[in-house]
């Protein structure tokens, strides 16, 4: 392997490791979010907000809303 090839292989291994760490972190956050949502009386955490794309939409007391941009409507 030449030098550039070795460097790329190393970067690829780093990225794989970071991706695995990130996936684990996302799963932990999803589990935590579901538990916190339940305790806060939120019926469900749904799809990403199409308006701002900064948050998932929440359903609570018959309303669906975005906690980031405050978009909301009844369901
Ligand atoms: Zn939004």
Map the helices and strands.
Elements lengths: L2 H37 L4 E5 L7 E5 L2 E3 L6 E3 L1
Antiparallel strand pairs: 1-2, 2-3, 3-4
The chain binds zinc ion (ZN).
Q: Could you characterize what this model shows?
A:
The chain is of the alpha+beta class. The chain has 2 domains: 1-40; 43-75, no CATH class. The chain has 1 helix and 4 strands, in the order αββββ. Strands 1-2-3-4 form a 4-stranded antiparallel sheet, covered by helices on one side. The chain is elongated, with a radius of gyration of 19 Å. The termini are far apart. Residues 49, 51-52, 54-55, 66, 68-69, 71 line the site of zinc ion.
Characteristic terms for this protein:
75 residues, alpha+beta, 2 domains, four-stranded antiparallel β-sheet, 4 strands, 49% helix
Number of separate structural domains: 2
Low-confidence stretches: none
The average pLDDT value, as a whole number, equals 95
Backbone structural class = alpha+beta
Entry summary:
The chain has two domains: 1-40; 43-75, no CATH class.
């Amino acid at each position: 392997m030449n030098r550039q090839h070795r460097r790329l292989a190393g970067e690829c291994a780093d990225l794989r490791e970071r991706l695995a760490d990130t996936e684990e972190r996302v799963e932990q956050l999803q589990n935590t979010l579901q538990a916190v949502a339940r305790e806060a009386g939120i019926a469900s955490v749904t799809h990403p907000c199409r308006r701002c794309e900064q948050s998932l939409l929440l359903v609570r007391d018959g309303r669906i809303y975005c906690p980031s941009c405050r978009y909301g409507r009844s369901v």
